[in-house]
């Protein structure tokens, strides 16, 4: 199902040892999060590296409604996870997580599922800010401690905004 979602030929599973715990005929399929990147590359399946990353990803928040949801990566001082050497990009990985959720989990199949980074400043169209969250949240729906924490995050931007090494 994963390979079909990516428009890949599924017969590659039986042809490549990278998918199996031992020899193909006498073993079990590896969980995609356990696939070895070097073996994927050697088999000409480097495009599946993103699948491995998606199966190891742990989105911070899923906000869900009856019609859809959004996966949020919450940031305060850090930025989107990236690794130039491997090509890893956190937002692209989360987009694949959303795509795989729609393909593999029945309750997500027909839902709209977006991805965004929640951070102090908006750096792209995929970003939400902590101030955005305050604007759409009813104060009566959140306990006073959580509300005070959210307000502090909005104020945090002002205190750290001029630092060169800050977010």
Give me a quick take on this structure:
This protein has seven helices and six strands.
Describe the structure.
This protein has about 170 residues and is an alpha/beta fold. The chain has a domain at about 1-50. Helix content is about 35%, strand content about 15%. The chain contains seven helices and six strands. Strands 1-2-5-6 form a four-stranded mixed sheet. Strands 3-4 form a two-stranded antiparallel sheet. A hairpin with a 4-residue loop joins strand 3 (about 80-85) and strand 4 (about 90). The protein is elongated. The chain starts with a helix and ends in a 7-residue tail after the last helix. Residues about 155-165 have low confidence and may be disordered.
Q: Give the oligomeric state of the chains in this entry, treating copies of one chain as homo and distinct chains as hetero.
A: single chain
Please tell me how large the radius of gyration is: 20 Å
Distance between the termini: 38 Å
Structural class: alpha/beta
Give the beta-strand count.
6
Tally the helices.
7
What is the helix fraction of residues, given as a range?
25-40%
Overall spatial form: elongated
Query: Beta-sheet strand percentage?
Result: 15-25%
Mean pLDDT: 83
The main pleated sheet reads as: 4 strands, mixed
Spans where pLDDT lies below 50 across 5 or more residues: 157-167
> What is the succession of H and E elements?
HHHHEEEEHEEHH
Identify the strand order in the major beta sheet. 1-2-5-6
């Amino acid at each position: 199902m994963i390979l079909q979602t990516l428009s890949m030929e599924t017969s590659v599973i039986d042809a490549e040892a990278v998918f199996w715990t031992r020899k193909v005929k006498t073993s079990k399929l590896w969980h995609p999060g356990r696939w070895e990147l070097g073996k994927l590359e050697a088999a000409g399946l480097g495009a599946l590296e993103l699948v491995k990353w998606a199966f190891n990803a742990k989105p911070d928040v899923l906000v869900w409604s009856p019609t859809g949801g959004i996966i949020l990566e919450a940031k305060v001082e850090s930025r989107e996870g990236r690794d130039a050497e491997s090509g890893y990009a956190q937002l692209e990985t989360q987009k694949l997580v959303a795509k795989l959720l729609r393909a593999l989990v029945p309750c997500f199949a027909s839902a709209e599922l977006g991805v965004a980074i929640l951070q102090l400043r908006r750096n792209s169209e995929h970003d939400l800010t902590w101030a955005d969250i305050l604007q759409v949240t009813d104060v009566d729906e959140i306990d006073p401690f959580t509300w005070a924490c959210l307000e502090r995050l909005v104020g945090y931007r002002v205190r750290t905004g001029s630092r060169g090494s800050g977010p």
